[in-house]
Design brief:
This protein has about 220 residues and is of the alpha/beta class. Helix content is about 30%, strand content about 20%. The chain folds into 2 domains: about 100 residues, Rossmann fold (3-Layer(aba) Sandwich), CATH 3.40.50; about 90 residues, Rossmann fold.
Length: about 220
C-alpha cells in the first residue's frame, strides 16, 4: 500500500506574541513543518527590533541537526509550535535557552533544566539496563525514512557478549514488547525519540561498542 504524505501548513501572524518575549541579542528560529513559512516574517520583524536573527528551519523530534550549526552563533532558540519533545530535544542537544511560542494556544514558555535532566536520566538508565542484560532485542521499523535493517544487522554482529534477536514491524509500542518477556533490553533503530521503558537508542549502543561506527553502519 502506498502512503501519501501531505504537509499541513499554517499562516499565522504571531507578532503580537513576539512582543511579549524578552529576547537576547542573537536568536535562531526553528519550527515544526506547520509553521515553517512563518519564520521569514518573524525574522524580518525581530531584525527591525535590532536583533541578530538566523533561520535554522524545520526540526523533528528525532532530528534537530539543523540547530547544531547555529548553537555557537546565538544566545537562544525560538521554537514555533506546540510544547513537547521537539523543543526539549533542541535544549538537550545544543545546551541553549529554548523559548517556545505556540501560535494555536497563544502560550509562551521556556524549556526548563529539569526537563532536559529527566531525559538524560532515562537515557542513562536505559543504557545501564542494556549493559546488564543477557538477551537483547533489536527493533526495526518498516516505515519509510526510519527503516534501517542494515544497521540492525550490523549491531547484531557487533554485540558479542549477549544473545541478540531482530524484531521487525510497522508500529513499535510498549504493549507489543510486553509479549516478549525474555528480552531484558531493547535497541531502537527507528525514531530516536521513541520513549519506551527498557529501550535504548542505537546511537548510544554504537558509541559504546565502537566510536567509529557511522550512522550508515559503514
Amino acid at each position: 500500500m502506498k502512503t501519501l504524505f501531505i504537509e499541513a501548513k499554517a499562516r499565522i501572524n504571531v507578532n503580537r506574541l513576539i512582543d511579549k518575549i524578552k529576547f537576547p541579542e542573537r536568536v535562531a528560529l526553528v519550527s515544526s513543518v506547520q509553521f515553517l513559512e512563518n519564520l521569514q516574517d518573524i525574522k524580518v520583524y525581530l531584525e527591525k527590533k535590532g536583533k541578530k536573527v538566523y533561520i535554522a528551519g524545520q526540526v523533528l523530534g528525532c532530528n534537530v541537526v539543523n540547530t547544531l550549526k547555529f548553537a555557537d552563533k546565538i544566545d537562544a532558540f525560538l521554537f514555533i509550535g506546540s510544547r513537547g519533545f521537539h523543543p526539549v530535544e533542541i535544549a538537550r542537544i545544543t545546551k541553549k535557552l529554548v523559548i517556545v511560542l505556540n501560535p494555536i494556544t497563544n502560550e509562551i514558555s521556556q524549556i526548563k533544566k529539569d526537563e532536559v535532566e529527566s531525559i538524560e536520566k532515562k537515557k542513562k538508565g536505559s543504557l545501564l539496563r542494556y549493559l546488564n542484560s543477557k538477551k537483547v532485542g533489536i527493533l526495526v521499523t518498516i516505515k519509510p525514512g526510519q527503516e534501517n535493517i542494515a544497521l540492525a544487522k550490523l549491531l547484531k554482529e557487533k554485540i558479542k557478549d549477549k544473545e541478540t534477536y531482530l524484531f521487525v514491524g510497522n508500529e513499535l509500542t510498549e504493549n507489543d514488547l510486553i509479549n516478549f518477556s525474555g528480552i531484558e533490553s531493547w535497541i531502537n533503530t527507528a525514531c530516536s525519540r521513541i520513549e519506551i521503558n527498557r529501550v535504548v537508542n542505537f546511537e548510544e549502543i554504537a558509541n559504546y561498542i565502537n566510536k567509529s561506527l557511522s550512522l550508515k553502519g559503514e
